[in-house]
């Protein structure tokens, strides 16, 4: 497999925050951008052939990363064994995803894949931005500190030495003033309520721009009612816990999952399933109007580059999760939301999965950072009663080791439009590998019923790492 290149772009490593000089930022940026030459291979590395070359088997095309395993970066041999089925009678060393027959009867949630219910909190949008998150964060600050320290440790394992620490502690806080209102003020409020350094809270919010791997679906039943659901998978390549056979960051995320009711004048504006301390939105619903989820889209010209361009002064793109938050808060119709999600310039490529409040209102918007590449819409006349997205363009085949799309579509086909419901969609999202080691939660939404349900998830062995 040849190493992918990065499209030509201006040398932003010569810039800095505030257009001044910051050797720390420039040095870290150069290291990161150079590492992006190998980042696509971190996902495609299992296809590199039979000669897996070192302990980090899934990073076999990036030998220099193999030494990072002891610090928690990437997959160790035990994780690779899970992928390839070593030592299991249920799987074979084929490099393909472990699958199972479509599940049924998993809803209401019970059993080994159900980790618990998710608590509700209210965020009052009439309060000052720095005050909105105080109650929630005061209850979750220990769990938030545990996760941020893990992310910080992983960042230092990827960039050895003190430069990344200096970037987090000294440079990232300077970015707060560059964020659109009210996001900078809210991040300050999270830092104040948690007692965590401002730069670390900023780092926590940045990570969601580049490490989210998900499955989302919008389906229409025979009566015209729409159902929108998703598995949120997070933590890819962020520290494999050999003892528990799971992703370290995913484990630490589950205690932070919350349902949030955003209110103004005592009335709900939108609801969301999110993570305490994270002020953007990945999953949400504006009752009676539309529902929205965001999935990461892998690209060489991807999230890391956009984030570092922002750090280094090129700020003409919108943070994905800030855009979805703004759309949920301010848009008043499905069409308005679709226009904003299609046309706003972004820091990172993405898939936006949008559902409305009437028959036929559902689509997957495929975005590059600069433009809309495709809008794939529900079309009952063509027999398309659902749209489903994982993390691959619909016109391209998914990687054999990460094929959640085909198992999900197989289960949707078996269910049929006649029988679609919260329960049957939850069954599909509970079927491996749609459910996998990265899955933190499942959310089910019905705009017309003003209903959002969310559940913590876990994937018992045998189970795919992603």
What's the helix and strand layout?
Layout: H1 23-35, H2 39-44, H3 77-84, E1 114-117, E2 120-124, H4 134-158, H5 163-171, H6 183-194, H7 198-207, E3 212-220, E4 226-234, E5 240-241, E6 246-247, H8 248-253, E7 257-264, E8 267-275, E9 283-286, E10 290-296, H9 303-311, H10 320-330, H11 334-343, E11 350-355, E12 362-367, E13 372-377, E14 386-389, H12 405-415, H13 422-429, E15 439-446, E16 451-457
Parallel strand pairs: 2-7
Antiparallel strand pairs: 1-16, 3-4, 3-14, 4-15, 5-6, 7-8, 8-9, 9-10, 10-11, 11-12, 12-13, 15-16
Helix pairs in contact: 1-5, 1-9, 4-6, 4-7, 5-7, 6-7, 12-13
Task: Give short descriptive properties of this protein.
466 residues; 2 domains; single chain; 8-stranded mixed sheet; 6-stranded antiparallel sheet; 16 strands; alpha+beta; disordered N terminus; 13 helices; globular; Penicillin V Acylase, Chain A
Strand fraction? 15-25%
For the record, the CATH class of the largest domain is Alpha Beta
Q: Strand sequence of the main sheet, in spatial order? A: 2-7-8-9-10-11-12-13
Low-confidence blocks of residues: 1-21, 35-95
GO molecular function, one term: N-acylsphingosine amidohydrolase activity
EC number: 3.5.1.23
Pathway: Lipid metabolism; sphingolipid metabolism; Sphingolipid metabolism
Enzyme class: hydrolase
